[in-house]
Automatic annotation (TrEMBL):
<dbReference type="GO" id="GO:0016758">
    <property type="term" value="F:hexosyltransferase activity"/>
</dbReference>
<keyword id="KW-0328">Glycosyltransferase</keyword>
<comment type="pathway">
    <text>Protein modification; protein glycosylation.</text>
</comment>
<protein>
    <recommendedName>
        <fullName>Hexosyltransferase</fullName>
        <ecNumber>2.4.1.-</ecNumber>
    </recommendedName>
</protein>
<keyword id="KW-0333">Golgi apparatus</keyword>
<dbReference type="GO" id="GO:0000139">
    <property type="term" value="C:Golgi membrane"/>
</dbReference>
<keyword id="KW-1133">Transmembrane helix</keyword>
<keyword id="KW-0812">Transmembrane</keyword>
<keyword id="KW-0472">Membrane</keyword>
<dbReference type="InterPro" id="IPR029044">
    <property type="entry name" value="Nucleotide-diphossugar_trans"/>
</dbReference>
<keyword id="KW-0808">Transferase</keyword>
<keyword id="KW-0464">Manganese</keyword>
<dbReference type="Pfam" id="PF01762">
    <property type="entry name" value="Galactosyl_T"/>
</dbReference>
<keyword id="KW-0735">Signal-anchor</keyword>
<dbReference type="InterPro" id="IPR002659">
    <property type="entry name" value="Glyco_trans_31"/>
</dbReference>
<comment type="similarity">
    <text>Belongs to the glycosyltransferase 31 family.</text>
</comment>
Amino acid sequence: MKRNKWLILVTLPSLILSLLLFIIFINVQVLKPPSPPNPRNSSKSTMYPNQTQFSLMIGILTRADNYDRRHFLRLVYGIQSSPLATIHVKFVFCSLTKPEQRALIALEILRFEDILILNCTENMNSGKTYTYFSSLPHILTRKYDYVMKADDDVFIRLEPLASSLKALPRVDLYYGFVIPCASMNPFVEYMSGMGFLLSWDVVEWIGSSEIPRENVFGPEDKLVGKWLKMGNKAKNRFSNKPAIYDYPGTNGKCSHELIPETVAVHRLKRWDQWLHVLEFFNVTKGLKL
Ligand SMILES: *[C@@H]1O[C@H](CO)[C@@H](O)[C@H](O)[C@H]1NC(C)=O
Ligand SMILES: *[C@@H]1O[C@H](CO)[C@@H](O)[C@H](O)[C@H]1NC(C)=O
Ligand SMILES: *[C@@H]1O[C@H](CO)[C@@H](O)[C@H](O)[C@H]1NC(C)=O
């Protein structure tokens, strides 16, 4: 009897202690957020080295002074990836014009290596898109199967985008959202500037042909369609409707409600619109704050 009491006295505290430690351990495990991607590798596509089926560079045309937008978009794209494709997101703008840009953008380049500076002055309709595509073969250190041009007010979902490209030709391709809004025929007119994609051979053609060089002034995205028509290029075309569209209520028939199979939503001008989109696509679902 006495012996049993002694045993309980000795074992009970250690039992309680173990239980406490166990509970703490469980809590720590549960509370621990999902491990973040390697911050030095802002694109998770490096998780699948050399196993991807194709490569894609997304150039987001923006302005040097849009520091906050770049910061936000780096977060948005840094947490996305696709096992199908190596995807690099880069920010593209014209020559720097202010002293502070030289230091601040140098810092960004040193830290992120995701900026392309074109030899141009910022403009709406005088050739930035031409300068972008025609410069790429010279300024990139590698080739990509596809090159995209995107706006900085569009949310692109990399996994559905890569899936939608999987079965498409790797050459002579023009992919996007065909204008006019209601059109389902990508072989007339052109792809909306919100986000369209060309295969590398077409990018090289833009850089070397006289057709684009002599047709530089005018609505940029419409011109791309014109060059391809004049050059009899991009025999492979794909307009990805309804997966690409303008944010609900912002642009007539180019807009519709958010849908699960979305590849890209455009015209995200306000934080409440970004918030709606991030929530709808469960982007931050892994971490409830
Ligand atoms: C990113 O990851 C790849 C593959 O793991 C590695 O080779 C590369 O050095 C990393 N880049 C940086 C900047 O850490
Ligand atoms: C930039 O463009 C201007 C005007 O087209 C040209 O004169 C200049 O040589 C270009 N600079 C570089 C570094 O290519
Ligand atoms: C977001 O998560 C909810 C709940 O799990 C799910 O029902 C919904 O289909 C998800 N939405 C998308 C776009 O994947």
